[in-house]
Write a structure and sequence with these properties.
Elements lengths: L1 H18 L1 H6 L14 E4 L1 H4 L5 H13 L2 H4 L3 E3 L25 H11 L3 E7 L15 H11 L3 E5 L8 H15 L4 E4 L18 E3 L8 H9 L13 E3 L12 H13 L4 E3 L8 H8 L1 H7 L8 E5 L3 E7 L5 E7 L5 E6 L11 E5 L4 E5 L2 E6 L3 E9 L7 E7 L4 E2 L4 E10 L5 E9 L5 E4 L4 E5 L4 E9 L7 E11 L2 E11 L16 E3 L6 E2 L8 E3 L2 E3 L2 E3 L4 E6 L4 E10 L8 E8 L2 E10 L5 E6 L5 E7 L10 E10 L2
Parallel strand pairs: 1-2, 1-8, 2-3, 3-4, 4-5, 5-6, 6-7, 18-25
Antiparallel strand pairs: 9-10, 10-11, 11-16, 12-15, 13-14, 13-16, 17-19, 19-23, 20-22, 20-24, 21-23, 24-25, 26-31, 27-30, 28-29, 30-37, 31-36, 32-35, 32-37, 33-34, 33-36
Helix pairs in contact: 4-6, 7-8, 9-10, 10-11, 10-12
The structure holds alpha-D-galactopyranose (GLA).
Length: 646
């Protein structure tokens, strides 16, 4: 299976060299030095400091890279991003360092960095100016590459701003050739944002790695959306040719520790260049531990260089896997949802050969357990667990926990539910003396239905312990964690579950007066009693005071809690599109389709929807993009109303 991936890589590169033959042949790319046999590791100033940089920062960062243990862990490049250069070239037309920020010049900084056994990276753009409006290298490639080499620069990040719409392959090849002509070994980092599918040509023109997307920001949503854009790119990656999903945000403060652990786990298994983007001088122990875990970094730096890829995806839960040269497979169990959940696969799912047992090394926890085949674990919300799984082993069993409840998804404030904590013995030996506790948020009560102790769970068996959990009458709508703590003779594992609180609708509410339990829209944000563009809801010349406007493709969920009997609405496209757009409207109750309008087009009168929702707990209103793309799909549910008890 993985052999085939490599075959695809070679085939693709072969195809590209045919297409790009003349340019590729003329460039020095064929002689690209092997400077990145594994993904480069280092630091870059941009994510944390933007233009607020100077030579002290770079020197102090080099010192911190050594003193913090980052260098020992493998981090090597200290990269100065945008804003290092003076606003004008010198009299000879050469770039010069900003006299205030870098009064000693770049060579002095490079010497300082080199004296610590580290390397210096610098930045320019394949345009007339950098993204911050400073002089850049388009049509100055030879001069600028010569300056970089003379200063002792070891890496160039080459950006894409102000590119005059000139062809990317030409612009990036010109700098590759200029770098090669200097004779100095300089890693070439192509920062073209994925605009022209650089994975198809950047390696050929001499790039050691290339950005696949726009800029990352220090937000969970940004990280996950970049992750989604990596799917399918694995075939283009390999030694000296890495996909770059952008630099790390670990330690910058915009995500939780578990979110950063997921970010680090995923970037590692993706063979991403690991370029830290935080302040190394002041990072705390948690950040340092996330950035320097030797087992996690070993997955990223595996000499075979086969990029990990997604092997399973069930909405919020994903499994990413990467074959290791040492035998075995690295795996990330990823939970992108807001509720804790068990995530898993099997040894066969990971492409491992048949064996009596497998050892799972938990890379973050530094423990090893044995499984017969399941590779599963409970994963916190917005979190990840990371293992290397290898055939063989006889040690402690893998104990997989799971917290499941009987709510069907929701309870109302003041209500109770039964939460079952399941403890599965995936190993070869019995699990003995099991004690199970379950914790809920403050103000909730948790009572064990029977005992909380299990004498023994034999191999291949699951023990279940039930709890009655009661939410306070004041519980807020939303997701609340239920966390199990499972202790046994040889270990302890957590179990992450959750319960959603929702308030029942009463009377005959407009849905636009209810808070949806979730709302995903294809563009903009959900319009409530107004259109996506902020106008009065208007379909085929008729205005409506009440309704929601979720741009297609959309999915908006409401909690009915079996208290309602009817849903009525009109489905159509707002006149603000000038009669353009086409959308399908679907109503689903607890997973069962209740209504489907077929294709509705712009200018068409609102299509009446009238469905029986008796017994429905969760109502889902979906709009699809119709036969064309999602342009002008300003879909609306107007006069949308429920009939409920009370
Ligand atoms: C672009 C790049 C970023 C950073 C900035 C600097 O946005 O994609 O990584 O280098 O420019 O201006």
């Amino acid at each position: 299976m993985y052999g085939r991936t490599r075959g695809v890589l070679l085939a693709v590169l072969g195809a590209v060299s045919l297409v790009a033959g003349p340019q590729a042949g003329a460039s020095a790319a064929a002689d690209k030095p092997s400077l990145a046999p594994t993904p480069p590791m280092g630091w870059n100033s941009w994510n944390k400091f933007h233009c607020d940089i100077n030579e002290e920062l770079i020197r102090e960062t080099a010192d911190a890279m050594v003193s913090s243990g980052m260098k020992a862990a493998g981090y090597e490049y200290v990269n100065i991003d945008d804003c290092w250069m003076a606003p004008q070239r010198d009299a000879e037309g050469r770039l010069q360092a900003d006299p205030v920020r870098f009064p000693s010049g770049i060579k002095a900084v490079a010497d300082y960095v080199h004296a610590r056994g580290l390397k210096l990276g610098i930045y320019s753009s394949a345009g007339t100016k950098t993204c911050q409006g400073l002089p850049a290298s388009l049509d100055h490639e030879t001069t600028d590459a010569a300056s970089f080499a003379e200063w002792g620069v070891d890496l160039l990040k080459y950006d894409n701003c102000n590119n005059q719409n000139r062809p990317a392959v030409q612009r990036y090849t010109a700098m590759a050739d200029a770098l090669a002509a200097t004779g100095r070994d300089i890693v070439y980092s192509i920062c073209e944002w994925g605009s022209n599918k650089p994975w198809e040509w950047a390696a050929e023109v001499g790039g050691h790695y290339w950005r696949t997307t726009g800029d990352i920001s220090d937000r969970w949503g940004s990280m996950v959306s970049i992750l989604d854009q990596q799917v399918g790119l694995e075939a283009f990656s390999g030694p000296n040719a890495w996909n770059d999903p952008d630099m790390l945000e670990v330690g910058n403060g915009g995500m939780t520790t578990e979110e950063y652990r997921a970010h680090m786990s995923l970037w590692s298994i993706l063979n991403a260049p690991l370029i830290a983007g935080n302040d190394l001088r002041s990072m705390n122990d948690t950040t340092r531990a996330l950035l320097t875990d030797p087992d996690v970094l070993a997955v990223n730096q595996d000499w075979g260089g086969v990029q990990g890829h997604k092997i399973a995806d069930s909405g919020d839960l994903e499994v990413w896997a990467k074959p290791m040269s040492t035998g075995g497979t690295a795996v990330v169990l990823f939970n992108r949802g807001v509720a804790g959940a068990q995530v898993g696969t099997t040894a066969a799912g990971l492409g491992l050969p048949r064996a009596h047992s497998y050892t799972m090394r938990d890379l973050w926890a530094n423990t090893s357990v044995v499984t017969r085949s399941p590779v599963r674990a409970s994963v916190p919300p917005h979190g990840a667990r990371m293992f290397v799984v290898k055939p063989g082993g006889h040690g402690n069993p893998s104990v997989a926990t799971d917290v499941v409840d009987n709510t069907g998804g929701y309870i109302e404030p003041g209500d109770s539910l039964t939460a079952n904590v399941r403890v599965a013995n995936d190993g070869l030996r019995p699990v003995r003396d099991v004690r199970i506790a379950l914790a809920a948020p403050d103000g909730w009560t948790v009572r064990a239905d029977h005992g909380t102790k299990v004498h023994v769970v034999p191999p291949g068996r699951t023990a279940t312990v039930g709890f009655t959990v009661t939410a306070p009458a004041t519980a807020a709508n939303g997701t609340h964690a239920l966390t199990a703590d499972v202790r046994y003779r040889d270990g302890r594992v957590p179990g992450y579950g959750a319960v959603s609180i929702a308030t029942r609708p009463v009377g005959t509410p407009w849905i636009s007066d209810l808070a949806p339990v979730s709302a995903q829209v294809g563009w903009g944000s959900l319009g409530v009693d107004k259109s996506v563009d902020g106008h009065a809801l208007t379909i085929a010349g008729i205005s409506y005071a009440k309704g929601i406007a979720p741009h297609a493709a959309s999915e908006v969920k409401y909690y009915l809690g079996t208290h309602c009997t009817r849903f009525t609405a009109g489905a159509g496209i707002d006149d603000e599109t000038g009669k353009r757009g086409s959308v399908t409207f679907t109503v689903t109750g607890d997973g069962k389709e209740l209504a489907d309008t077929g294709v509705v087009t712009g200018g068409q009168a609102a299509v009446p929807v009238d469905v029986d929702v008796t017994g429905v707990t969760e109502l889902v209103l979906t709009t699809g993009v119709g036969p064309d793309n999602n342009n002008y799909d300003h879909s609306e549910w107007v006069d949308a109303k429920l009939t409920c008890e009370g």
